[in-house]
């Protein structure tokens, strides 16, 4: 399951900025109110007789209900020698329960049209969540109640062994085969002493994960997985009276457990600076500074949150401007106040450019910290930080699942699900002097840990063997905490579903040819706009790979009216984001912010696309940044596998075969003339669409767009559009890229695929959902849940206007690379051999069809959908037609799609891993691998 969720203290509202919020409340059907600049969440809380807490957040914006169950246990509750146990237990909860057989939980969620289904563990809690269509309220409660009350009935040595393998694969993927993963671990071990529950981070160690026994699992369940130690938040479209009755029905008979032991741990104190060097398989060095700081919501927490934004909260921040823009010593800067219940950590991470000195970077950071400690930040910096935090919080409330999680967060961490008003007040009351004083008090040099991450050998603890997985449980392994209730064996039926409707859009065209696509959404005062252009990698000149991406990246870096710094400061002052990037076939410039900032945000968007400066100093800076990014890609095996996969799929000379960043030579060769030439040829109104979703009427949008974009005219004659070369048929082959010592092999199994306009696109997607698109798919189930080879392996079709690719991707344990491929090929053969049975078809088809409202539940999702369809050449109706297209898929059409678009004879295997260990496995299964270098 997922890594720890980002804590809300980083996103808490920074002030009661009535001027930035509309005076009127959100529509009555929404739970979130912004009346008079005050943000509030309407909710109701009650407690069952067994101690189970329930919070109802009625929100009628969409026909969805979010189920968010927090168990108040995490690593803070682990005992010595059991690091990673809380997270391992999270996995076990999904492995089956008394009334829901192993492997069926997620299938029920899929069949019901669930979205956002997962679990997460952070230091202080474990979270289980999904969102279902509102007519499945009772089924969602049935599932959640069984997870909490009857999981212990099903868990046995087989389930435990399987999830130990899965979690250890997650550790390999997230810590050992991820740049700076072991560095983070070393930082926490330096911050916290032996015995402190935060010392080992959430994932734990291989030795401790493998040492967990079934008795430990049962003891943990008896202590912590009881109704009096859990809270359920329901947020969405339901009748509160009915919800109360159903919660009582499903949770009321669960037996309360003993009161969990209190966690009493003193906050560690560092009185002398601790320094360490960690070598890792990385390309770029990194400096990390970390301090113990006040616990969440304690005095000083909010001030340090603001300090983090001032120092490193985006391109307008001090350290970004100093280290990335001015001195050009850093590739990236991240600063955060990571707030937790026992103690918080203030961290500064600076990834250095090649050749930059970490000592020089540290000296500059220290000088900036000393300056902030001595001199309060400006009022403008405070306004910027508050505005950013404010917008991010409101955007989080847009999605009912995240709204539910926010309420649960406040309930546990502050003891009040309606704490949002008091949280806002923390930021509203802050003065510049208070921020400066907090920095002086908490961020002194003698109180910190300093970690230098340097390229070199990765040193890991001795390998912990993976024992053979038991084939069956031993006698006496099962027990119950709650009395048998046979009526729970039958899942509740769904209520009558509401009509399935998706957010529609209208379009109009300006006189200059610019298409404007608009999907209004009243409610929260938020707007997202995306300018999408046919200016992606596909139109790169043959001798200038990477030029499309370089051009897009340059647009926010200065115009004829604003410098890069002025643009960054303007965006930050609005509390908005403005990004630009190029994909395979399109370039996109995205603005996201409050409704009140839309006029200024669209003006910035227009300025950067219509009047780019392409200044020589900024080009030089971006060259260095992109060269460093090219090096960073070599650190990450999955990215490397994808890059090589594109190379072998499309073949030499095809624009999509090259790395999207380009090559070292092509990056070095870029100059202002090349960038301006590409911009003049491809950034034209008749080749662009402005897609807008949010709290804007058509009249309001027209009044904004015409003055800003109506005068845009392409420079010179429009270029002749040359179609992409057709992908040539390819033969199966196996390519190995050596990554010595890698604990996993990153796989990319690729082949050319159909385009977006394929008439059988819906059948392809339903078929792929069964093969490898869903968590419950055949490939992921076999490799993860049955064999324990991987943390996850999935397949998908990328379908564009003139390009298509099929791929299966995932990382597997090095020693089972060959075995994993054998299993994947079996699943492919099975998919092509016979039609799906009725149960599987209904499940995977419903997972596509009934989940649609949950997939288009935010402005960002709506904009991404319509922008992507425009880029792919699909009509506006392509989204609203999805329900009938998915509903029409049959077993026969899905089988036909598999036979036509899933050809094993064309699949190319790219394996990035330890060549010495991988090649013998590949040869043993009849494959003759060829070697390829990362840059070949």
Automatic annotation (TrEMBL):
Limits of the Peptidase M16 N-terminal domain: 54-192, 528-633
Start and end residues of each stretch annotated as Disordered: 461-497
Cleavable signal peptide: 1-25
Key words of the record: Signal
Domain Peptidase M16 C-terminal: 212-387, 671-847
Annotated PANTHER family: METALLOPROTEASE (PTHR11851), MITOCHONDRIAL-PROCESSING PEPTIDASE SUBUNIT ALPHA (PTHR11851:SF49)
Family stated for the protein in its record: Belongs to the peptidase M16 family.
The protein, known as: M16 family metallopeptidase
Organism: Pelomonas parva
């Amino acid at each position: 399951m997922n890594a720890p969720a980002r804590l809300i203290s980083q996103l808490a509202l920074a002030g009661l900025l009535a001027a930035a919020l509309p005076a009127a409340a959100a529509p009555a059907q929404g739970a979130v109110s912004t009346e008079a600049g005050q943000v509030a969440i309407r909710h109701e809380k009650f407690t069952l007789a067994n101690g189970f807490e329930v919070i109802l957040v009625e929100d009628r914006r969409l026909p969805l209900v979010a189920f968010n169950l927090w168990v108040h246990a995490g690593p803070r509750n682990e005992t010595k020698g059991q690091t990673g146990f809380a997270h391992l237990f999270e996995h076990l909860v999904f492995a089956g329960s008394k009334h829901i057989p192993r492997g069926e939980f997620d299938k029920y969620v899929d069949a019901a049209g669930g979205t956002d289904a997962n679990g997460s563990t952070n230091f202080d809690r474990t979270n289980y969540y999904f969102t279902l269509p509102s007519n499945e309220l009772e089924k969602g409660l049935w599932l959640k109640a069984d997870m909490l009350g009857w999981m212990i009935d099903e868990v046995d040595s087989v389930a435990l062994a399987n999830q130990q393998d899965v979690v250890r694969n997650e550790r390999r993927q997230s810590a050992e085969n991820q740049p700076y993963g072991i560095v983070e671990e070393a930082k926490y071990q330096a911050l916290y002493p032996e015995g402190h529950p935060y010392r080992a981070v959430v994932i734990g160690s291989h030795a401790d994960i493998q040492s967990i026994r079934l008795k430990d699992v049962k003891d943990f369940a008896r202590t912590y997985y009881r109704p009096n130690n859990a809270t359920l938040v329901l947020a969405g479209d339901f009748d509160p009276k009915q919800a109360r009755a159903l919660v009582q029905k499903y949770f009321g008979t669960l037996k309360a457990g003993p009161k969990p032991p209190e966690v009493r741990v003193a906050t560690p104190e560092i009185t002398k600076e601790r320094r360490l060097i960690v070598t890792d398989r990385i390309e770029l060095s990194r400096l990390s500074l970390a301090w113990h700081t006040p616990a969440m919501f304690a005095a000083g927490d909010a001030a340090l949150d603001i300090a983090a934004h001032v120092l490193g909260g985006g391109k307008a921040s001090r350290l970004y401007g100093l280290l990335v823009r001015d001195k050009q010593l850093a590739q990236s800067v991240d600063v955060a106040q990571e707030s937790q219940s026992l103690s918080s950590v203030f961290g500064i991470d600076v990834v250095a450019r090649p050749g930059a000195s970490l000592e020089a970077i540290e000296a500059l950071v220290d000088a900036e910290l000393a300056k902030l400690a001595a001199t309060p930040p400006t009022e403008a910096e405070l306004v910027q930080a508050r505005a950013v935090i404010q917008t991010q919080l409101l955007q989080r409330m847009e999605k009912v699942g995240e709204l539910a999680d926010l309420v649960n967060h406040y309930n546990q961490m502050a003891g009040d699900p309606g704490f949002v008003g008091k949280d806002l007040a923390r930021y509203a009351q802050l003065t510049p002097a208070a921020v400066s004083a907090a920095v002086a008090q908490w961020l002194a040099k003698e109180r910190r840990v300093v970690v230098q991450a340097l390229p070199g050998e990765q040193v890991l603890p001795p390998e912990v063997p993976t024992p053979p997985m038991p084939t069956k449980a031993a006698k006496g392994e099962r027990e119950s905490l709650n009395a048998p209730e046979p009526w729970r064996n039958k899942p509740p039926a769904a209520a009558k579903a509401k009509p399935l409707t998706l957010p529609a859009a209208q379009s109009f065209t300006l006189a200059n040819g610019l298409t404007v696509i608009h999907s209004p959404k009243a409610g929260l005062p938020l707007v997202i706009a995306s300018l999408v252009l046919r200016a992606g990698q596909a139109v790169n000149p043959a001798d200038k790979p990477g030029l499309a991406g370089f051009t897009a990246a340059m647009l926010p870096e200065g115009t004829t009216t604003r410098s890069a710094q002025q643009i960054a400061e303007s965006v930050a002052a609005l509390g908005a984001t403005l990004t630009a990037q190029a994909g395979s076939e399109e370039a996109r410039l995205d603005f996201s912010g409050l409704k009140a900032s839309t006029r200024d945000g669209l003006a910035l968007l227009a300025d950067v696309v219509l009047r780019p400066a392409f200044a020589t100093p900024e080009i030089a800076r971006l060259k260095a940044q992109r060269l460093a990014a090219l090096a960073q890609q070599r650190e990450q095996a999955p990215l490397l596998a994808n890059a090589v996969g594109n190379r072998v799929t499309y073949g030499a000379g095809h624009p999509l075969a090259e790395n999207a960043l380009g090559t070292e030579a092509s990056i070095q060769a870029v100059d202002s003339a090349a960038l301006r030439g590409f911009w003049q040829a491809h950034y034209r109104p008749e080749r662009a669409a402005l897609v807008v979703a949010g709290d804007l009427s058509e009249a309001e949008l027209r009044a904004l767009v015409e003055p800003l974009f109506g005068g845009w005219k392409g420079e010179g004659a429009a270029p002749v559009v040359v179609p992409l070369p057709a992908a040539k048929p390819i033969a199966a082959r196996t390519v190995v890229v050596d990554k010595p010592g890698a604990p996993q092999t990153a796989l990319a199994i690729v082949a050319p695929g159909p385009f977006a306009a394929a008439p059988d696109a819906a059948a392809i997607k339903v078929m792929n959902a069964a093969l490898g698109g869903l968590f419950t798919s055949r490939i992921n189930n076999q490799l993860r849940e049955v064999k324990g080879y991987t943390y996850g392996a999935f397949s998908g079709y990328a379908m564009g206007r003139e390009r298509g690719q099929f791929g299966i991707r995932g990382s597997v344990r090095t020693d089972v690379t060959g075995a994993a491929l054998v299993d994947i090929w079996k699943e492919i053969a099975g998919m092509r051999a016979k039609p799906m049975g009725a149960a599987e078809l209904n499940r995977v088809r419903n997972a596509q069809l009934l989940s649609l409202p949950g997939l288009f539940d935010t402005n960002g999702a709506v904009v991404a959908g319509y922008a992507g369809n425009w880029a792919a050449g699909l009509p506006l109706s392509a989204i609203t037609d999805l329900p009938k297209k998915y509903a029409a898929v049959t077993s026969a059409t899905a089988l036909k799609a598999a036979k036509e678009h899933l050809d094993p004879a064309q699949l190319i295997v790219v394996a990035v891993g330890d060549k010495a260990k991988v090649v013998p496995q590949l040869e043993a299964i009849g494959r003759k691998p060829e070697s390829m270098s990362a840059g070949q």
